[in-house]
């Protein structure tokens, strides 16, 4: 293999970062006949496998299963006890393989991907330094994810708060937990630790889940309060101190001091680019935010950025989607095959702009794809918005007594297609892929009308929403 100048290269592709996005980029390159190496300084499998997606959902699931049983007569009587916390933590540990990556390493080997252990750093175009060894490649992919950001609160860093890593890997459940942040991770961990027995307080600067439809945050906030969580919105801590006894004190702007054994900060993330050596190549950090739909970094013909590091969509599934597009695009470019980089082409991450699915694994869940009403109006689109009570659908009432939820479609009047969908309710994440297909496929509403939902399922909400659009909306 040779680089663009005709010089011999060690690999066709080197990927820095062995999380899900990095693994996919390398895998798709190898499947296309290229050689690939992946560089990792921590655990192969990345944040999602060990400190985010998998352990967090494992912590949540047992409590949600117990709550689900308690909503059904007959099952309620059999679910009178409390969670076995040790068993929940042990199940969480199983999903992280005890924070060992031998299984993931074996997968790399089976896929024909070379693993380079150590910190990867760009030292020249197409050159990655790992320890004392420099490796060259025809293309390099950055897949280094994101890292948490601490807000500028006096004393916060010195108090050694938990981040999401500490929260998802904790060996004990604190009697009291304060969560700073009302986004997805903070909300999910509030539910998890509440179910495990912590007295939880959530401090959110704005409304809960502020990027979603307003009613989503309202229904989730109501559920937290019903579980005894002290939820305070419109609140910003003024100072944090950890005393010699280990107890954390959080002082609010009005002078109130809240105390807890642990403090979790979940207020945002930034690209994980420290030490990557971008400055060696004159590449600004902001350039990673400007990748094209093949994930190529502007001003280069060899550097790609996939996943959280490019800030397009901080979601594992979107990072993997980008990586598949990038790996295939790299293969096409390096082998001289046709490049399908136009909208919805095989080598383009078009869905990042229009059809990003996302789930908050709270109870009720929040599942959404595409644009919210606010986002569509900000874009100046002529839209119709239809909402329906999810609990009124027969499948929902069978699913649990007192089922509470809501659903929304944001519809482009000009094209008569769905731009966005939001579902809030128990287990609504299973409704989301149908909505994603409708949005990504730009399925005309008059055709979607003929996609008949099975009865009695919660999916019948699709019929009710379309009825509301066709028969209740002024057209």
From TrEMBL:
Domain FAD/NAD(P)-binding stretches: 11-317
EC numbers for this chain: 1.8.1.4
Keyword field: FAD, Flavoprotein, NAD, Oxidoreductase
Entries under Gene3D superfamilies matching the protein: 3.30.390.30, FAD/NAD(P)-binding domain
Any one GO molecular-function label of the UniProt entry: dihydrolipoyl dehydrogenase (NADH) activity
SUPFAM superfamilies named in the record: FAD/NAD(P)-binding domain, FAD/NAD-linked reductases, dimerisation (C-terminal) domain
Biological classification of the source: Bacteria, Bacillati, Actinomycetota, Actinomycetes, Micrococcales
Name by which UniProt lists this protein: Dihydrolipoamide dehydrogenase
Residues of the Pyridine nucleotide-disulphide oxidoreductase dimerisation domain: 356-462
């Amino acid at each position: 293999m040779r680089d663009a100048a005709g010089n011999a290269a060690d690999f066709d592709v080197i990927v820095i970062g062995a999380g899900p996005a990095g693994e996919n980029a390398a895998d798709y390159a190898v499947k296309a006949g290229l050689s690939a190496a992946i560089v990792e300084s921590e655990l192969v499998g990345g944040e999602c496998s060990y400190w985010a997606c998998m352990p967090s959902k494992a912590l949540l699931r047992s409590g949600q299963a117990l709550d689900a049983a308690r909503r059904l007569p007959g099952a309620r009587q059999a679910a009178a006890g409390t969670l076995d916390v040790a068993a929940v933590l042990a199940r969480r540990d199983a999903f992280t393989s005890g924070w060992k990556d031998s299984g993931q390493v074996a997968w790399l080997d089976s896929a024909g991907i070379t693993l380079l252990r150590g910190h990867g750093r760009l030292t020249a175009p197409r050159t990655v330094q790992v320890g004392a060894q420099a490796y060259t490649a025809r293309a390099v992919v950055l897949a280094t994810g994101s890292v948490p950001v601490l807000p500028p609160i006096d004393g916060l860093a010195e108090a050694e708060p938990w981040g999401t890593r500490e929260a998802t890997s904790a060996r004990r459940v604190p009697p009291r937990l304060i969560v700073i942040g009302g986004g997805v991770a903070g909300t999910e961990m509030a539910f998890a630790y509440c179910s495990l027995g912590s007295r939880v307080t959530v401090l959110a600067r704005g409304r809960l889940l502020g990027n979603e439809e307003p009613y989503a945050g309202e229904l989730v906030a109501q559920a937290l309060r019903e579980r005894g969580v002290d939820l305070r919105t419109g609140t910003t801590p003024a100072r944090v101190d950890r005393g010699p006894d280990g107890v954390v004190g959080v002082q609010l702007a009005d002078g109130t001091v809240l105390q807890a054994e642990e403090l979790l900060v979940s207020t945002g993330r930034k690209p994980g680019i420290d030490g990557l050596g971008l400055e060696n190549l004159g590449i600004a950090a902001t350039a990673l935010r400007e990748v094209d739909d093949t994930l190529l970094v502007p001003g280069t013909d060899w550097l790609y950025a996939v996943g959280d590091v490019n800030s397009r969509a901080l979601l594992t599934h979107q990072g993997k989607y980008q990586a598949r597009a990038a790996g295939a695009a790299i293969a096409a470019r390096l082998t001289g095959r046709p490049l399908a980089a136009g909208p919805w082409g095989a080598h383009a991450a078009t869905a990042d702009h229009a059809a990003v699915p996302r789930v908050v694994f709270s109870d009720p869940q929040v599942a959404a794809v595409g644009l919210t009403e606010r986002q569509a109006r900000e874009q100046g689109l002529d839209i119709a918005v239809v909402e329906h009570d999810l609990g009124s659908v027969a499948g929902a009432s069978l699913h649990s007594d007192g089922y509470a939820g809501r659903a929304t479609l944001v519809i482009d009047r000009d094209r008569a297609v769905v731009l966005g969908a939001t579902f809030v309710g128990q287990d609504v994440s299973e409704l989301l892929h149908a909505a994603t297909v409708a949005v990504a496929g730009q399925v005309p509403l008059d055709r979607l009308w003929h996609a008949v939902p099975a009865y009695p399922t919660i999916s019948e909400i699709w019929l009710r929403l379309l009825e509301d659009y066709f028969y209740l909306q002024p057209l």
